[in-house]
Amino acid sequence: MRAVRGLTAAAVASRRLAGALLVSLLAFLLALAAPAAHAGAQKEEDLADSVRGALAAAIADDRPLRPVFASGGERLAYLKWLGEMSARLASRIPEPQVRVELIEVAYYEAKRAGLEPALVLGLIQVESNFRKYAISSAGARGLMQVMPFWVRTIGDSDARKLFHLQSNLRYGCTILRYYLDREQGDLYLALGRYNGSRGRAEYPNAVLAAWKRWQYSEATVTVAGDPEIAPSRPRAPVAEPPARNPFSSQRVAANPS
């Protein structure tokens, strides 16, 4: 009787082990089937104390995540833009609430950094295909594929935040703005630096092509140019003046409510 019970216990243990192995195998196969995050990565480099301090301050900025519009027409344009972007993103993110939150945060962080929201959405498409928990072969993380060393250099050393929606986009937009300033507004070179492939055409061309997908001419709250006549080495989108940028520090100060 004891021998039978022993065999039964052994059989149960064997089945459990086989089940665990099957689950692990399925997870591995799913990982292989999923589209890989872009393999490029920002390169760690020494920063001057003043630059590090400015970037850290930008990351820590706690202004409220809320746009201030100059008119009802500007707000309506934003809502129309939001609805259009949500429709375009529906095939990648089926859940409406998750989708809208991502678009709203992308708009906020892009405007805050003086970038065009369509550019940021295009970069996210190329970097992670809108996968919040994407990890590249180089170790870059999240939607905008930020390297963990940035959290140590200009953040609080908590790399887990790179899987948080706003934190990831805050880092990504701040880093891209820094590279744009460093390259004196040359978007082509800045994108190459963001990807760790400065001087090569593949990555900038991919982002510029994706950028066109997310442009929306009716939204006056963006500053999109005509994608058909964009130069091969485009300059950075010009930051909007306070009268147009809902996240300008001047307008936030003037509209404390």
TrEMBL record:
InterPro entries named among the record's database cross-references: Lysozyme-like_dom_sf, Transglycosylase_SLT_dom_1
Segments traversing the membrane: none
Annotated signal peptide: 1-39
Stored Pfam families: SLT
Every Transglycosylase SLT domain range: 109-200
Region Disordered, annotated ranges: 225-257
Keywords assigned: Signal
Skewed-composition ranges (Polar residues): 247-257
Domain of life (superkingdom): Bacteria
The keyword Signal is assigned to this record: yes
Family as reported in the entry's similarity comment: Belongs to the transglycosylase Slt family.
Protein name (database record): Soluble lytic murein transglycosylase-like protein
Organism, scientific name: Cupriavidus alkaliphilus
